[in-house]
Amino acid sequence: MKKFILLYLGFITLFSCAKNEEEYVLIPKKVELKIPSNFPGLLYDLSQNLLTEEGIALGKKLFYEGRLASDGVISCGFCHEQASAFTHHGHTVSHGVDGKVGFRNAQPIQNLAFFSEFTWDGAAIHLDLQPIIPITSDVEMNENIPSVLSKLNSYQEYEVLFTNAFGDREATSERMLKALSQFMVTMISGDSKYDKVIRNEENATFTELEINGLEIFNNKCAACHSGALFTDQSYRNNGLPTNPKFPEEEGRKRVSGLKDDFYKFRVPSLRNVAKSFPYMHDGRFGNLEAVLDFYSDGMTQNGGVVDTLLVKSNGNLGIDLSSQEKTALLAFLNTLTDNTFLNDKRFAEF
Ligand code: HEC
Ligand code: HEC
């Protein structure tokens, strides 16, 4: 008898599934993520958020949606522009609703599926949670989640997009955040000249100067800017003078509360670095020449603990770089530009 009931329940489930699927306009199409062969393993858990064409499409729509902000204008894409590797072109620190100014430089959005913590100080520990910060920050999108959801729930275009991606029309915060993550997870940049050389593709080769730059980079920079992502994802103090314009800035200490974490920031990836200017957490340097001059001559004790890798044998701070070495480093850094990514229609607003 028991067996019979189980069998019967099984049939009902089977039957109701089939029926439900028939009712859908569309069954979401699963998407396989293409990971470059020279990349590390994914850190984003896709088993908790199945990638589908429809989920990604919804995420992209949301990424460029001004209605996520209180003024109906400031979308994620407003501060994260594709041509600048999804940073905010022309702004040292971000400008949000009503022209309000934050205190950090917008970070590139690329390869985030391979990261474990987000923002300059690691305030967000999951990609799905990160967008809550800009949406609710008064200097960014100045909104609140219930209000965003009620806006989304009132537009017919979203009714269709949510139904296609998640089976019914309801816009919930979980669905909104998961769709945004799906879109961001697909934003992989791994097709620069550097990658092609490393993977032996298309007969790509470095010039003498680029090879020289790579050697200098490996000797003097790669301890922190390491691996295929050009970051070890740790928080470090690289001896930048504190910025009197933003006295509230404490770096990683804002998150950990630890005194020694003062002015530590997550080592940034250097992919597309030629396009993601201005540089550093507050965008203080307008070009890469200025960054290299800082590394050779601009470091100071800044009230925190400057990384020991940056302390020379004579006790001074900095990295010895001749002007020839700087020229070679610049040539190498330029090989990290991935024009396929910067022009990829899948990520473009229009
Ligand atoms: C007003 C400008 C602005 C808007 C709008 C904005 N961002 Fe950002 N974004 C920033 C800044 C500035 C940072 C660095 C924040 C920090 O370190 O405190 C950042 C960081 C991030 C990061 C972390 C990247 C990393 O490498 O850790 C992600 C992901 C991100 N934003 C996604 C989004 C999404 C999704 C939206 C829309 C919901 C959005 N942003 C809207 C300016 C903005
Ligand atoms: C001790 C670790 C360490 C070493 C060594 C190091 N960096 Fe950095 N680098 C950092 C940290 C941390 C930041 C972010 C600091 C900030 O924003 O306040 C950074 C920022 C940068 C930036 C700005 C990137 C952006 O998106 O804003 C560039 C470019 C850069 N480094 C290049 C180099 C080069 C080239 C070398 C070698 C000459 C080098 N770094 C050596 C830790 C290091």
UniProtKB/TrEMBL annotation:
Family matches, as InterPro entries: Cyt_c-like_dom, Cyt_c-like_dom_sf, Cytochrome_c_Peroxidase/MauG, Di-haem_cyt_c_peroxidsae, MauG/Cytc_peroxidase
Presence of the UniProt keyword Oxidoreductase in the record: yes
SUPFAM superfamilies: Cytochrome c
Domain Cytochrome c: 54-156, 208-337
Catalytic activity, EC: 1.11.1.5
Gene3D superfamilies (UniProt xref): Cytochrome c-like domain (1.10.760.10)
PROSITE patterns tied to this protein: CYTC (PS51007), PROKAR_LIPOPROTEIN (PS51257)
GO MF entries: cytochrome-c peroxidase activity
One Pfam family this sequence matches: CCP_MauG
UniProt keywords, alphabetically: Heme, Iron, Metal-binding, Oxidoreductase, Periplasm, Peroxidase, Signal
Compartmental location: Periplasm
Primary location group: periplasm
Protein name, UniProt field: Cytochrome c peroxidase
Key word Membrane present: no
Enzyme class, UniProt record, top EC level: oxidoreductase
